[in-house]
Amino acid sequence: MSLLEIKNLHASINGKEILKGVDLTINKGEVHAIMGPNGNGKSTLASIIAGRDTFDVTQGEIIYEGKNLFDLSVEQRAAEGIFLGFQYPVEIPGVSIANFMKTAINEQRKYKGLDPMPSMEFMKLMEKQKKIVDLDTKLASRSVNEGFSGGEKKKNEIFQMAMLHPTLSILDETDSGLDIDALRVVASGVNALRSPEVSTILITHYQRLLDYIVPDFVHVLFEGKIVRTGPRELALELEEKGYEWLR
Amino acid sequence: MDNFKKAIRPKEEDFADFSCHLTQLKTFRIHQYNGFFFERNDNDVLLDKNIIICSIKSAMKNHKSIYNSAKNLQPLSSDDDGLFIYIPRNTILDTPLQILNVIKTFEPLKIEAKTLIIVGENSHLKLIYCDDTVNDNLSKTESKISVVLEKDSSLEYYKMENINNLSSIFTDSNFVLDTNCELKTFWLSINGGDIKNKLSVALDGQYARADLNGLYMVDRDQVVDNQVSVSHNQPNCHSNQLYKGILDDSAKAQFKGHIYVSQNAPYTEAIQNNRNILLTDKAVVNTQPFLEIYNDDVKCAHGATIGQLDQSAMFYMRSRGISERSAKMLLMFAFCTEILSKASIEELVDTLQDIIKRRLHGELSSCENCVLLCSTPCGTSDVDFI
Ligand SMILES: Nc1ncnc2c1ncn2[C@@H]1O[C@H](COP(=O)(O)OP(=O)(O)OP(=O)(O)O)[C@@H](O)[C@H]1O
Ligand SMILES: [Mg+2]
Questions:
Q1: Cα gap A100→A104, rounded to integer Å
Q2: Is residue B326 classed as helix, strand or coil in its secondary structure?
Q3: Nearest ligand, measured from the Cα of A16
């Protein structure tokens, strides 16, 4: 069954069209990689799925688990299982990661009609998931992303994903800025969370990530459209030839 | 037309029903009712340490030389029913003093409160000063506080203003610091129809340090005005001003920060920051730095911001499932509590955080009792702050 269905999606910002008819279907359990040159709309697509309202959707629809995504607020989408790992995670001074995650989990639970997670259980979950991405214990008690290095911010995204165990994860260049070890850690974090029920969209510039997280499909988003879809070998071909030949 | 009558000394019984709910914190309480000092001789600890707490009238009579040592600071007449506090040299008081100015009026009253505090050489004091209206009637309070810090002494000073929406308060505070003194202030204007704070700090001895923190939270038609002035009169002194405000509805705030560095004050370091969040289009902030520097050997920085809540932070939080309202609350709470980061009385910080939370929930303005009632956990909170 398809989890996410994007049909003929057009979106613009300040009158400039960025997405020019994107079609994409993702089934449960699949991993899709989206590649493409800088500034061609990858992050735009990710943000629109997550619900950012700075873009105007001018045409098309997105169906998620049978629901019209545009009927749901940002936080409702999160509670329905959509997670965006940000290309540029945001710093929030004065809000600790623990408080941030506790609020997020409990508000998602509230949406589902569940009681708040007992504190002990929450603490245990934190401990467990911190290990998955090898997140420094000291970092967890600090303000969200404040003063984190680029790599630490990316690890923190995966940590949050592990805490929230989403149904659809969209990881926007989570591999950028990671050293080889961190890349392995992040990839094994993602792989650990893979299951027939959850799907992942990996936005990346490097085929290297796909050695660690093997995708079912590779798409090329070029000038606001998906111009090519292929197996993982497509990534290798792109690395070799660049994008111009697709024009 | 000004139809406010000058307050006369009220009956103590009228205030019998007032109770401060700063329950988690042990303090030595000193009472002012409608600005008048009421003496209570019930603190052996203070007596043992030769701390003097009396009316200004009696200080003039019984502690003449001590009183006169500070007299340049403020002209006071002998019929004043003001408050006089003297901490002798080498005194360390772990328990904070708390001055409670309780305002209760049955007709529009003009209230005057006067306080003179001397902290002796090498003594260390923590002081909490609260102004609270306990009913919803009109009042106009003028409060004058003069504080003298003798050399090597320190003071951590908390000022809490929670007055009803119809009332105004004007505070005129003067601090004079001698060599190597340290002053930290935490000025919380939590609620009030019209609040005006004038804070002047004179760094009159070398190596004196002043760290001045302020928070104002106003909504509806409330007006808050902070005028902070620091005079660097001697070399090697440091000052830091951090004032933050959240304004809702059509509230107005003004911040005037003055830094004066005298010709005689090389190696000065002076910093000033004013940060504001406007929650509506109708709220107004006017911020004016005023630097007067007559010396080249100075490190000076100032900055002001007026803005909305960070929209990328809002989106980030909501994308994790946090509702818009909770995300706002968390951001505002983080913004506010930064000013408490240097406060050392932990239990008080907890209480102040509770007060800030309740204020963010919009509850305080309807709170008829002492603001410190809010030390009880915030039951209706839908955001669980840690
Ligand atoms: N807030 C904005 N205001 C104006 N233009 C924007 C805004 N956000 C994105 N754009 C523009 O939209 C286009 C697509 O940007 P997007 O971030 O989606 O690219 P991308 O494919 O993710 O690129 P990269 O690989 O560099 O991350 C770019 O031309 C960008 O400048
Ligand atoms: Mg991008």
A1: 6
A2: helix
A3: 1
Residue type, A169: S
Mean pLDDT of chain A: 93
pTM, entire model: 0.88
Residue A229's φ and ψ, nearest 5 degrees, are -130, 135
Distance of CA B319 from the midpoint of ligand 1 (Å): 19
Q: Is B61 left (phi over 0), alpha (psi -120 to 50) or beta?
A: alpha
CB contact A72 to B (< 8 Å): no
Question: Where do the structural domains in chain A lie, given as residue ranges?
Answer: 4-246
Alpha carbon of A20 to those of A40, A48, B118: distances in Å?
A: 10, 13, 73
Instruction: Count the Cβ atoms, other than its own, within 10 Å of residue B256.
Output: 16
Q: How far is the CA of A221 from the centre of ligand 2 (A)?
A: 11
Cβ A40 under 6 angstroms from ligand 1: yes
Q: Where are the alpha helices (DSSP H) in chain A?
A: 42-50, 74-79, 97-111, 119-132, 137-140, 150-164, 180-193, 207-212, 233-241
Nearest to A106 among B310, B337, B384 (CB): B384
Q: Give the integer Cα–Cα distance in Å for B263 and B298.
A: 10
- CA B123 remoteness from chain centre: 21
Tell me B339's DSSP state. Answer: G
Interchain contact B305–A (C-beta under 8 A): no
- The interface pTM score, or ipTM, of the predicted complex is 0.97
Q: Pocket of ligand 1, candidates A9, A12, A13: which has the most ligand atoms within 8 Å of its Cβ, to mutate?
A: A13
Which helix (H) or strand (E) segment holds residue B311: the answer is helix B311-318
Do the Cβ atoms of B309 and B278 come closer than 8 Å?
no
B306 in Cβ contact with B274 (< 8 Å)? no
Q: Which residue of B has its CA nearest to A101?
A: B320
Distance from CA of B246 to the nearest CA of A (A): 16
Q: Do A106 and B337 touch (CB under 8 A)?
A: no
Residue type for position A72:
L
Identity (one letter) of the amino acid at A66?
Answer: G
C-alpha A70/C-alpha A58 separation (Å) is 12
Fold of the CATH domain A4-246: Rossmann fold (3.40.50)
CA distances from B277 to B220, B255, B284 (A): 15, 13, 10
pLDDT of residue B75: 55
Residues B267-286 have pLDDT tens digits of: 999 999 999 999 999 999 99
User: How far apart (Å, rounded) are the C-alpha atoms in residues A203 and A88?
Assistant: 13
In sequence order, what are the residues at sequence separation of 6 or more whose Cβ sits closer than 8 angstroms to the Cβ of residue A138? none
pLDDT of residue B47: 81
Put simply, whether B273 touches A (Cβ < 8 Å) is no
* CB B230 within 8 Å of CB B261: no
Residues of B in contact with A95 (CB under 8 A): 330-331, 334
